[in-house]
Design brief:
heterodimer; A: about 220 residues; alpha+beta; Alpha-Beta Plaits; three-stranded antiparallel β-sheet; two-stranded antiparallel ribbon; 6 helices; 5 strands; elongated; B: about 850 residues; alpha/beta; Ubiquitin-like (UB roll); Rossmann fold; 5 domains; six-stranded mixed β-sheet; iron-sulfur (chain B)
Chain lengths: ~220, ~850
Amino acid sequence: MSESEPGLPERVPDDWAGQPVPAGPPEPATAPVPGTPLASPSNSPLDPVKGFGVTFRTMFKPVVTEDYPRNPRPPASRYHGRHQLNRHPDGLEKCVGCELCAWACPADAIFVEGADNTEEARFSPGERYAKNYQINYLRCIGCGLCIEACPTRSLTMTNEYELADDERQRLIWTKDMLLAPLADGMEQPPHPMRLGDEQDYYANGPDFLRDLETRQAGGAR
Amino acid sequence: MTQVATPPAGTPEQEPPGPPPGHVRLTIDGVQVDAPKGELVIRAAERIGTAIPRFCDHPLLDPVGACRQCLVEVEMGGRKMPKPQAACTQTVADGMVVNTQLSSPVAEQAQRSNLEFLLLNHPLDCPICDKGGECPLQNQTLANGPSASRLRDPKRVFTKPIPVSTQILLDRERCVLCQRCTRFSAQIAGDRFIDLLERGSAQQIGINRTEPFQSYFSGNTIQICPVGALTSAAYRFRARPFDLVSTPTTCEHCASGCSLRTDSRAGGITRRLAADDPQVNEEWNCDKGRFAFTYLRQGDRLTQPLVRNADGMLRPASWTDAMAAAARGLLQARDAGGVGVLPGGRVSVTDAYAYAKFARVALRSNDIDFRVRDTPVLDNGAEEAGFLARRVVGRGPGRGGVTHQELEHAPAVLLVGFEPEDESPIVFLRLRKAVRSRGLAVFAVGALATRGLEKLDGTLLPATPGTEPAVLAGLTREGTADTGLGEAAAAARNRLGAALRSAGAVLLVGERAAAVPGLLTAVETLADATGARIGWVPRRAGDRGALEVGAFPTLLPGGRPVTDAAARAEVEAAWGVPVPETPGRDTGGILAAVRDGDLSGLVIGGVDPADLPDPGAALTAVTAASFVVSLEIRASAVTELADVVLPVAAAPEKPGAFMNWEGRMRPFAAVLPEVGRLDEGRVLDTLGVEMDVDLYTQTPAAAAGELGRLGGWPAERTAAAIDPAGPVRSGPPESHGLTPHDKVLTSWRPLLDGGRMTDGEPALAGTARPEVVRLSAASAQALGVVDGAPVTVRGPGGGLTLPVAVTEPMRTDAVWLPARVGGRPLSAWIGTSAGHAVRVMAGAGIGREAR
């Protein structure tokens, strides 16, 4: 943490080796002996107001604190915020309920129960979907191993970090809360596979995504 | 298995001794090994701690060398074999030098390449595969496999999954053609419903489209599949291995007492697997034991005590109130005439002990009987009680009892009133193993040759139901002149008579044998005449233990006869209270006494009235009783009529032990201790306290401790104290004076017949055998029906129409029906049970129709 962001005051590095600190006023040659009074008679009479100098100087620098919650700062784009379960362009869930995220989780924060897709009720392409998906944000440490483990890019992390609450029950997020909202052209599952067979969903995933983006861009125009 | 003779370091001047007799000496990875002749290299390597990778190899199946994963380099007489050899088919030889993947780059490369080959067409669907996380192929690929595929072409694709039966799904893409499933089905189960089809890259496992995989043992193929090609419909996508908590348990379904591994997740059982127990079930179990555990979570589970209020309605009550009400009612009933106890055959050993002690100490009576079956207990059970006391109680492994392993080494086994495949499937597997490997001769006395007997290569000694004692009596005679037997049957009989005299021969007697007057006596006579030993195989898991701990009208714990003053004194010393000295009533006697007002109360455990010979009469008796306490896990016809209903723990919810038919203790741990249900020992102990007596059965451990202190009673003294078989009720068998259309009914319960303990598992129910009427070819011809045509069987209570299955060999004066049809006992359909005459008619007769 040696580099400082612009606008932040220069931080004084920790002086481990006992070297004189390069910046700032020179220190007295001798450290005050314990027991001796700090205010010695040799001090300047301006000393009582000198402290205000720091105050005045700082008034003309940009603020360090954030204006939260009125004006929250966006975190870095790869910030590990709360999870999201993504969808295929037709609205089917990408999650296949494989539990690899739960397996990878070092904090045992994820609970998944798989189930069988049927012809009548299909939630994801292929045979398997997550019937039950829960993330316990009391346990989650935001390490992101779950999203690395996810074989279908279903589980990703958003930049949303407002995960505090005063009730434990509400910090267990269930599948309906974690699922991405339905975008343009998406349909609430269960429904049949609209984009071909199971292979197409994975083999042609990038094309679908491009189509979806084009469509969304067209819709926005 | 012999000991590994790793050469001790040092003493170079001493010449090492040669291999022991019957052994050869070979070198594996530079280590000298003595192996018995004929051992496979892969096993010899295992014994020095070298695991050679394998998929098709299984120690209980014949070697096949199908997967080629276990390739090793072999050198004989200083010359290398030209190619790497499969260690799972190569037998050891003297002077052989084997180099596994640990010491040979050639073997290592061969295994690596083979793994790449097996993965060519294996789909990358591990995330959705049920085997993921416990998959040998996945593990070996992670350990030794290539990180990327060199295959540029598309993989072979099959439709998936296809159901090969209602409970097994086949995913052909994942299959590596190791043939473990087909070999299991052909060699172990004898049900060759699944086999290799097609050739080359199209080769696949499959079934005959008209014959699904209807085997009682099919679940084992899921467990031994080294990839995720065969998966369970019931467990599909339920959990991952790391979710599961595994508990070693014992199966609660039959008297074999298989070791199981029960996996649970989040307070519910997800699956059960066969555990490895060489003394009992080896590595197998039956589908009922594997899949039937959903009865626990049926909607009719009892969760809190119920007490009948002043308006005659059952209402939920606190345990305190229910116990007080039960104690009050039982004390009144005891003083008014007495209380009978029917614990049923599902109890654990310690729970049965609690019932036995409760009856004697709190109810001051010997009126307790665990026997619940659909055939009447005859003559107040004297013949059976004597048989059990003389031949069964107190015996076990090392104490004169027959064991599974002794069955395997027996020269001949005679089945009496016992159909192993339906009534104790693990006995069937053990018999079949012996038939295949040692040429065991199996004989059965009965009216028909079943498919199970065919798979045992067995010989039927045909006997019309009721005439079995005469057939057994004839076994001690030679010649054909004095009986009406045919030439072949007489030859079989003579062969059996000789075989039974050789050492180790066994008579396996089912509980149904007690229904035929004189049959158990004939078994004893035969055993005494030939020296053959007797194994008694009841149907339910708790039967044998209940007999042992005195849940029986004439026996106290440890097989102590009630009538023996010395035996009573021992029990009285341990319990500190007097023990009633009059023998009690049996199940039928208790119910009749309650109906007639001789007994005024009942304590009933897990007894389904439909399992009794006359369900209507049983329910009448329960209604007639002035006070009934029911200890049940689910609402039933009995709990509806009871005055106090106490919910108890099912087997997976409590620790305990069963005693299997061998007399072997089969302990089990609680799979779901957190549900907090009380076992019967605890409930009865508390009830006892309310009645001012102490049972000391608060926990299974406490009860087991007291049982241990009480100890056994010499089996010879039990036998001596019981009267030798008294006059046996003998009358003309039912086959006398029959018209050609009247036949004697023979029947037993198939393994899967819609019993209450298989509720909630439709996939399992789908593999039940079709319900049919079995008739001999001659009878079918006389009726003018062909295989599959409807036939009506009429009894005093109605008629039942089912398709006919022509069976040979079968007695022409007999007809077979499953003992439950459409989930109801035969008595509910035709008003009679096995051993009685019924009328058989072609076509759908007048009467109630099945289905």
